[in-house]
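Appendix B, record 7
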Amino acid sequence: MARVSYHAELDALRRDLLRMGTQVEEAIRLAVESLKERNAEKAHRVLALEDEVDRMELDIERRCLNLIALQQPMAGDLRQIGMTLKVITDLERMADHAHDIAKVTLRLGDEPLIKPLVDIPRMAEVAEKMVRDGLKAFVEGDVELARAMVARDDELDHLFNQIFRELLMIMREKPGTVDQATQLLMVGSHLERIGDHATNLAEWVIYLVTGVRQELND
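Structure tokens (predicted):
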């Protein structure tokens, strides 16, 4: 692989990483919309998106490994390729969580919701923003943007705790709601885990730029 095509491939990897992130954002948004609107079609679109994200992960992974094997990149390029391998793993797991939320929509079917969904859509908005900012920070090497994501992760944790308390109260008052309340708790948990994976992106950015591993999920 000539040096010019090597740099072109690095640029292509960055573009495809952003495209993969966009697919993940779309999957998160559609998954929660499918639940809020009781829309099975949107839920099935999430399942298809998750398959696409899986395919993209394998493709980017193969190309990263080829670059390492054939070009023997050094210093910054090697670190960026290594971090790309880490980031696609986090993105793939976020898509898995969106897939699991869509499956909740399909399991509930037309069953009326035991409460209006307010905090869960808010969690989805925060999670999508974290994914977007994490990828922007990664591509631009923006450490400050990466560190700013910690506050949003705290917001996600706060919203999830709020949902937990509210659903616990509903279950105590109406034991017949336990099955659905448990499903909604799982949705909140999936969104909280998406935030954790997005925070991992921030940690990779800090490592990529500074060479220092910093835990942001304390």
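Remarks on this record: The radius of gyration is 19 Å. Residues 89 and 151 are 23 Å apart (CA to CA).
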